[in-house]
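Record pair follows.
FIRST:
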Amino acid sequence: VFIAQSRASGSHRDLEDEELTRIFVMIPKTYTEEDLREKFKMYGDIEYCSIIKNKTTGESKGLGYVRYLKPSQAALAIEECDRSYRAILAEPKNKSSESFEHDYYSNVMRPELRGNTLPFCMQPEFCSFEKADTRIQEPVSKRLSVVSRLPFIQEQLFALFDLVPGLEYCDVQRDPHTNSGYAVIQYSTAASAIYAKYKLHGFEYPPGNRLTVIFLEDGTDSSE
């Protein structure tokens, strides 16, 4: 199994260079590039490691890149490394690092729900879920319906929605006539379901395929 390039792409090697061999990870701010290399060298031959630093202070932002020689090595690192690294494939270099960092914080990092409060933001500039947004105008519930034009893989969809604490179950179904994806997601609290819908409705998974996430009526009191 390998990843096919689009017809508009250049050579296969160009595609590997830009999209398939570089991963983006969250790391402790104390990590050096040597520390980063040491943690990820077990998955394959590393071409280089780099740590993103504050341009003004020179301090680490707690984010870094690891570039492997082969796409299979990058894929193995994403699959096998500790979940605390939040490893994903890096965007091509022609996308600004600031834009990619913003997308990373918005879509990949695990939201922290403290008690009954909605999101805790790692950094203020990435916090777009203001208190006013919690005044939901539609019926809410602990249960969500997820629809996609592509079929889902149970383990992958579970891992995606499990980024929001409180996931109770993920039931993936498939329409044999259209081959589209459909799943029912349930959380332990309505707050978790609201946050999951807010973060993952319209999220591209896999890239180019937008998810539609709506509430399923389950008798939850929306005023609560």
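SECOND:
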Amino acid sequence: RCETCSEEEAKYRCPRCMKYSCSLLCVKKHKLALSCNGVRDKTAFVSVNEFTDLNLLSDYRFLEDVGRTADAAARHPTVHSPAAKKLLYCLRNKARRCNIDLRTLPVGFTKRRENSTTFNFTEKKFYWHLKLVFPHCHAEYTLKGVPDDKTLADILKPYIDPVESDPVVCQRLKIYTGSPRSDVQILMKIENRKQNSIRYNELDASRSLLDNLKGKIIIEYPTFFVVLKTLKNDMVILGQDASEPAENSDSDGSSLSSMEEGEIRDS
């Protein structure tokens, strides 16, 4: 049976989320409801028992795509621009002095093109490019020029505050605006972990953006996930899993993070 309308016999199966659908209309409905793009996740975890020759071939082709993307990015004229190199070096150096491990992707990657983070030498502070994700409402918002001394609570006010938020945004995020502030949880994905071991750091809404980013690895710009404690989600917070110690990362950074792999697919 179709998993969208539950009336007709299923004819299609989504390569991304494996949901069954009976028609184009139900396919569009399931994509809208689950924010599914219908594109197979080439980096999805596959256990050894389920690994087949097709998976091996898929991995081989994925690595070929990675090689082509990296080669094209290396040939891009902007890569060799002294001004661009100086700007990136300055951003990474200033972030390092703030105890932030800022890492940049090659030219041609989606996040590299999007990133608008700057450092103001007069004020001696960062103005961050920031992405807010509200999983319970399948909504994403991009912010530009966010000062690093602004608290996370103030950053979220235009979105989840019932008084100060925009009416359109408020309506879309009504499940958040109708919840008490104590129920709102801000999470940030920990980079450079294994694909099947994704963990998140919980951030303090009362502290500044800079304080929350200290000691973290950031690929291009921060992405915050705003969730509600009372609603079920699959995000595991570091330190709340009894099977592992509360450490910052289990990788030395030599391999691509899952976020970087996603950027390769987008490029």
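COMMENT: The two ends are 36 Å apart (CA to CA).
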